[in-house]
Amino acid sequence: MTQHIPPSHLEVEPRSEALQILVERGFVHQCTDMAGLDRRLGQGPVTLYAGFDATAASLHVGHLVPLMAMRWLQKLGHWPIIVLGGGTSLIGDPSFKSEGRPLLDQMQVDRNVAGIFRTVSRLFDLSPEAGGRIINNAEWLTEFRFLEFLRQYGQHFTVNRMISFDAVKSRLDANAPMTVLEFCYMMLQAVDFLELSKRSDCELQIGGSDQWGNIVNGVELGRKVDGRSLMGLTVPLLTTASGQKMGKTAAGAVWLDPDRVSPFAFWQFWRNTADVDVARFLKLFTELPMGEIARLTELEGAELNEAKKILATHVTAIVHGPEEARHALEQGDALFSGQAETAEPTYIMPLDMLAEDLGLLELLVAVDFAMSNGDARRLVEAGGVRLNARVVDDPRRRISSGDLGAKDRLTLAAGKRRKALVAFG
């Protein structure tokens, strides 16, 4: 029997070191069997997995919550499997979506899987002795024939049960259509869990709180098919202090792929964390000891900026490596101290772009300060853009060689917190 036990309702403190850390740092939202998971984590290595559909060529910072939970478990001797949805991405998860996702073709899915693989492989120890693996669920899902799949698994799912989950119910309550294709998605994810339990003795699935229904289906399928004892754990879906979904900014998603969001722009995102979010983000997104986190979050005023820099540098080191993190910190220190002439450029662009009549709006998009020219226009018209430390409020402004200073550079700022040093060459 599954149960919803928020961490605030725990009657007994966890005994296993792994669950103690997950609870203390804020990773636990729901669990199908909290006592059973605590007991099992204390008995020896547990194989666990989290799945990520390949709807884009990169994950974003919102995905870091389950990834960081898995990193902690690997550090404590457990064995993580990262499942890339090469099969499920051909359908698309309808969970809490107001309408169906656009269908991706096989070539797009394959490209996206390759992009996510590059990112995720940097976050885990994939050596055989560490037990970390990355698997594509196309390995088994694409092998099923339709009638075989229905006969083998369809009997274990009831429509009554499937429509009771919030992810489906919210769509139906809004009278928004849900296709049979989308409706079957939860069956596929449940089969993922069952296949992993058979192939790799996987016992635990981790996912965002929006995946609760899909996870419960997998737990129940394992029990119904051959009496397997599987468990599910969800992590919270985070919003910032402003109420914005974690990983979204005015310029779009904060991707983990350095080709989409530069390591410096990534560092700057975390450096601009709201004061009230610093403690929570240090617990979730760094591996600093809790005592050090407590010390940092007691800082006030301007001193709290040091805690934000430590947060930014530690997260960037985990995602992009220590060298990129050090470089981003040095760039940030130079830019925000007004010493841009000593900093390395945060963006390098071809010099011939100036000859092609480069507009200010296009430049704002290129440095990730805006998602589109329309967003950039609104930013400029609101007086929030500074070019070489001077406010520019004309969206028709063009960039010319006369804007370049020493070493063919210019500085660009959006508000007080976002700065870029752009070099042309």
From TrEMBL:
Gene Ontology molecular function terms on file: tyrosine-tRNA ligase activity
UniProt keyword terms in alphabetical order: Aminoacyl-tRNA synthetase, ATP-binding, Cytoplasm, Ligase, Nucleotide-binding, Protein biosynthesis, RNA-binding
Keyword Ligase: yes
EC id: 6.1.1.1
Subcellular location: Cytoplasm
Catalytic reactions of this protein: tRNA(Tyr) + L-tyrosine + ATP = L-tyrosyl-tRNA(Tyr) + AMP + diphosphate + H(+)
Group of enzyme by EC: ligase
Gene3D superfamilies with a match to the protein in the record: HUPs, RNA-binding S4 domain, Tyrosyl-Transfer RNA Synthetase
Residues engaged in binding L-tyrosine: Y49, Y185, Q189
Protein name: Tyrosine--tRNA ligase
